[in-house]
User: Which sequence fits this backbone?
């Protein structure tokens, strides 16, 4: 049985924080592979336009091509309509019954998880690996949130011990829209792709902020 970490998200764009998190999960919990799974039409991203799936896929492909054990998966992106994590995990377990899945998220997502579509199905189907991340709303400690979800849902939640991610895709889109340099925030090939295709710039870019 292979131990597979799942990194979901729009990856708009994929950045160094995503790569760092994948590396830490793979090493700390001895995972065989990390599957990066760009979403098709995420139902919670209705406040801004999401970049075309083909472009997000190409950026992720560039970012992951030299990373051992990192796999770019089209499992979600090729599904029509809204894609929900609970449904994706059900389909994954049905398609790959020989694998043991670990769902990798930031602390902000762990605080929001009870608002997700069928959160009990998410937590019963996979172990969750959570990394510290800034969360603006008032909230309990990460330890208390983990204990709450374990008690209420029987969730299996383990903490990732890596430095807190200090970058987000939203911030990067805003910086690109303002013409600011993206050095050190994106894998080099992705930064070059964003620049070459003028992604998120000017009026086009401001849609994304």
Assistant:
């Amino acid at each position: 049985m292979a131990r597979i970490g799942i990194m979901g998200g729009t990856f708009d764009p994929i950045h160094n924080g995503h790569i760092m998190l994948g590396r830490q999960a793979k090493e700390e919990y001895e995972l065989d592979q990390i599957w990066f799974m760009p979403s098709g039409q995420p139902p919670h991203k209705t406040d801004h336009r999401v970049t075309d799936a083909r472009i997000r896929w190409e950026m992720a492909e560039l970012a992951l091509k030299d990373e051992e054990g990192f796999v770019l998966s089209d499992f979600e992106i090729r599904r029509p309509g809204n894609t929900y994590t609970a449904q994706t995990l059900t389909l994954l377990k049905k398609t790959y019954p020989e694998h043991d899945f670990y769902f990798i998220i930031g602390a902000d997502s762990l605080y929001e998880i009870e608002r997700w579509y069928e959160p009990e199905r998410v937590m019963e189907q996979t172990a969750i690996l959570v990394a510290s991340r800034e969360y603006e709303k008032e909230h309990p400690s990460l330890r208390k949130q983990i204990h709450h979800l374990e008690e209420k849902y029987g969730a299996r939640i383990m903490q990732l011990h890596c430095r807190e991610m200090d970058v987000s895709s939203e911030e990067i889109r805003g910086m690109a829209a303002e013409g600011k340099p993206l050095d050190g925030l994106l894998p080099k090939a992705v930064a070059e792709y964003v620049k070459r295709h003028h992604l998120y710039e000017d009026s086009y870019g401001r849609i994304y902020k």
Q: What stands out?
A: Residues 203-209 have pLDDT under 50 and may be disordered. The chain has nine helices and six strands. Strands lie at 2-9, 33-38, 70-72, 99-106, 127-131, 157-160.
